[in-house]
């Protein structure tokens, strides 16, 4: 958690100095007055300045970033963590060299890491925010790959007149396939099986 202690002639001045250093506003911090300012003899000698402790309030995005920074440090990975937050979700993108180890086969490691980040970020908060984790734009590239696959297999199902069964996918990837083909009038899609082996069927309309 970002935290600084500042001293100044007044409490307000000390707080402003702290906010400036943290690059935050008052709504984003907690303020503890450590020492009240005192006037010295004749208002000059022996006076003490105000001293405050200003800490950034915790929220899901801060928790997510701290959690990931600790993991990256433990793995000795040099990364840049970018966060984009709104009222409902926190989008986190990690950039850096040689991050394939964090993605894993078809994003399996990335999905597991995202699950852990969500647990850490939302712990003890009444209002939960969904954390969406991406690495080097992998999810966008994977989405484009899945869309192309969906179009190609939909054409195949139509041409052959029989079902095409896709490999098992997680719920996010199945949603991409369903959405990509939802406007097709010549085929329809449905899912069958149990997690983690649930798969999509592309079926031609008779």
TrEMBL record:
InterPro entries: Jag_KH, Jag_N_dom_sf, KH_dom-like_a/b, KhpB, KhpB_N, R3H_dom, R3H_dom_sf, R3H_KhpB
Cell compartment(s), UniProt: Cytoplasm
UniProt keyword terms in alphabetical order: Cell shape, Cell wall biogenesis/degradation, Chaperone, Coiled coil, Cytoplasm, RNA-binding
Coiled-coil annotated residue ranges, if any: 1-32
Domain of life from the UniProt record: Bacteria
UniProt GO cellular component terms: cytoplasm
Family under the similarity heading: Belongs to the KhpB RNA-binding protein family.
Comment on protein domains: Has an N-terminal Jag-N domain and 2 RNA-binding domains (KH and R3H).
Subunit structure as annotated in this protein's UniProt entry: Forms a complex with KhpA.
Function summary: A probable RNA chaperone. Forms a complex with KhpA which binds to cellular RNA and controls its expression. Plays a role in peptidoglycan (PG) homeostasis and cell length regulation.
Listed name of the protein: RNA-binding protein KhpB
Organism of provenance: Desulfotruncus arcticus DSM 17038
């Amino acid at each position: 958690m970002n935290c600084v202690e500042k001293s100044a002639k007044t409490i307000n001045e000390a707080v402003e100095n702290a906010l400036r250093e943290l690059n935050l506003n008052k709504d984003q911090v907690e303020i503890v007055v450590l020492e009240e300012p005192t006037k010295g003899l004749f208002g000059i000698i022996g006076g003490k300045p105000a001293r405050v402790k200003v800490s950034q309030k915790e929220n899901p995005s801060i928790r997510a970033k701290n959690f990931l920074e600790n993991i990256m440090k433990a793995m000795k990975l040099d990364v840049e963590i970018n966060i984009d937050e709104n009222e409902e979700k926190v989008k986190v993108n990690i950039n850096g060299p040689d991050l394939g180890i964090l993605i894993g086969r078809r994003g399996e490691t990335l999905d597991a890491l995202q699950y852990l980040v969500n647990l850490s970020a939302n712990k003890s908060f009444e209002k939960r925010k969904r954390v969406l984790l991406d690495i080097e734009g992998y999810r966008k590239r994977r989405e484009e790959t899945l869309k192309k696959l969906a179009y190609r297999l939909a054409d195949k199902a139509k041409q052959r007149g029989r079902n095409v069964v896709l490999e098992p996918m997680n719920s996010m990837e199945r949603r991409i396939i369903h959405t990509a083909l939802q406007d097709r009038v010549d085929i329809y899609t449905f899912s069958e099986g149990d997690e983690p082996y649930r798969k999509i069927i592309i079926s031609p309309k008779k």
